[in-house]
Protein: NAD(P)-dependent oxidoreductase
Organism: Cohnella lubricantis
Amino acid sequence: MTAIAFIGLGTMGAPMAANLLQKNYTVTVYNRTPGKADVLLQHGASAAASPLEAVKDADVVVSIISNDSAVEEVYYGDKGVLAGLKPGAVAIDSSTISPALARRLASDVAAKGGSFLDAPVTGSKDGAIAGTLLFMVGGDQATVEAHRELFLAMGREIIYMGESGTGATAKLCHNTIVGINAAGLIEGMAIAAKGGLDMEAFVRIVQGGGAASKQADLKGPKILANDYSVQFSLALMLKDLKLSTALSDGMGVPAPMLGIAKSLFQAGQAMGYGEDDLAALAHVYEEWIGRQLRG
């Protein structure tokens, strides 16, 4: 069975690693914050003290980490992935990172005799737990196909995007839409709340009408229940919108709605809601209108 090093045991990474263990893969885990591996160790994982130790015997490295700087630390540090990666190994990074970093990683992993796939995911925490994530993948297509079984141990679908960096680009484009949709939902709910509407009835209208969206289904009920437990944090949404802004600016693509959404999530971060679910943007509107959006 393929030996896997899994790096990053946050909201998404821990359940992804758990699904690999359930499919009887040999999994060695590493997380920068101690203690997050405890449950996985009870289910058969081994723990490593550094990325280098985790990857030295691994056939495949799977990483899902919070941002570019954290990925750089894990890959390029003195005891990082590149210091221990064995020739022929495949590194699959499912973080949401800049396409430029994905291309640099692909080049540097190749220089070590390995292969790199940028393979970010969509499906949020629930999809990670259920093993129903969608992978959008950039890199060598033959390598993607050779690891199809591994991908499908963690998800339901693999969409091949093209050369290195295209998976990362697709994820930023996707999350631009997510951020704009979420902001639009919450703004509409704020107008409805200020207008004195029954909020549960209004959310049902949204879900059943032309404004229906995945965000309405995921975040509408959370806001009604005043439940801001994290599926995908506000801080990570803001990070992705900043990456999307850098990408669109670099390509010369006007993106006014992206700019507005980014500003809204920046307001949420400044007001202290970064570690809550991105639906906590509702609190910003609640302060503005002087009433709650919950049911």
Q: What stands out?
A: The longest strand covers residues 155-162.
